[in-house]
Design goal:
Layout: E1 2-6, H1 14-26, E2 32-36, H2 44-48, E3 51-65, H3 75-79, E4 85-88, E5 91-94, H4 104-108, E6 114-129, E7 132-139, H5 147-154, E8 162-166, H6 173-179, E9 184-189, H7 193-208, E10 213-218, H8 226-234, E11 238-242, H9 246-253, H10 263-283
Parallel strand pairs: 1-8, 1-9, 2-7, 2-8, 9-10, 10-11
Antiparallel strand pairs: 3-6, 4-5, 6-7
Helix pairs in contact: 1-10, 5-6
């Protein structure tokens, strides 16, 4: 089963939930994998403290033009929506940082003058931390396209009973790449005006791609009841509410797991997993029935 943990905005406690959920499940004897798909700023390693055993590059294919074959027809430039290749005078310029690796220029070239070569844009690291199989994607500094790194990370076959995906915050393409084709999405939010606004955007996203989901409210006692009212109005289940706890904030700042300050958190998070497993197994797909 694959569970994604996402949030409409940063700072809601998404990674705290994702890492602690993984540890809570693995402590019951299940094989658990954690994939940190927040590739622009991964921080799950701070909590799981993995021993890294393997690293490899994440690449995207970019064009290289053989000017000996090229007739400067301009078909490649015309087909590129991202302006990553252009005919300039008597040469063809390629702008790798703009290339999305779609292969359109390669496919359309009538002279077979375009070949595709790999360009490294990030790094994948694998290891084990706290009994959890750990994998992290990290986009290179200065790169703009994170989905290819996420895609490479999602291709890792772990064979685990449960895979927890720590998605990037927001509702843009990197998030969809991370959570697509998962069995269940936990949307972590907080009861504030900003939290609710971004939760509504996240709900619209998971509904659009037809994934089953529910909400966890973190720091549930710091705001008002508007998030609960919104969920009731929209028929969205709230699976867990975590009140503000100074000890939790202090543990987070030290990179410690919640179970180190109170064993009840581990129990509650495992019950959260069981609740989700029951929902997924009920219809066999985990897909939303909305």
């Amino acid at each position: 089963m694959i569970i994604s943990v996402a949030s409409g905005k940063g700072g809601t406690g998404k990674t705290t939930i994702a890492t602690n959920l993984a540890v809570a499940i693995v402590q019951t004897g299940k094989d658990v994998a954690y994939l940190d798909c927040d590739v622009e700023e991964p921080n799950g390693h701070i909590f799981l403290k993995p021993e890294i055993k393997e690293q490899f590059d994440a690449t995207v294919l970019v064009p290289r033009v053989d000017l000996g074959k090229c007739t400067l027809c301009g078909d490649c430039s015309a087909t590129c929506e991202y302006h990553a290749i252009a005919v300039l005078g008597k040469t063809v310029e390629v702008f790798p940082s703009l290339c999305h690796g779609c292969g359109g220029c390669y496919d359309i070239c009538p002279e077979n003058a375009v070949e595709e070569i790999p360009r490294t844009i990030g790094r994948i690291s694998r290891g084990v931390g706290m009994g959890v199989e750990f994998a992290e994607g990290r986009l290179n500094v200065g790169e703009a396209l994170s989905p290819p790194v996420t895609k490479a990370l999602r291709k890792i076959a772990t064979g685990s009973d449960v895979t927890i995906i720590d998605a990037p915050p927001g509702t843009s393409c990197p998030v969809i790449e991370a959570i697509n084709n998962t069995d269940f999405v936990i949307l972590v939010t907080e009861p504030t005006p900003f939290g609710q606004n971004d939760l509504e955007l996240a709900v619209g996203m998971v509904r659009k791609i037809d994934l089953r989901y529910a909400v966890v409210i973190n720091r549930s006692d710091i705001g008002d009841s508007r998030t609960e009212k919104y969920c009731r109005r929209e028929g969205i289940d709230i699976l867990m509410e975590i009140p503000y706890d100074r000890q939790v904030a202090e543990a987070y700042s030290r990179g410690e797991m919640l179970s180190t300050i109170d064993s009840r958190y581990g129990k509650d998070l495992y019950e959260l997993y069981q609740n989700i497993a029951n929902r997924v197994n009920h219809d066999g797909t985990g897909r939303s029935q909305r």
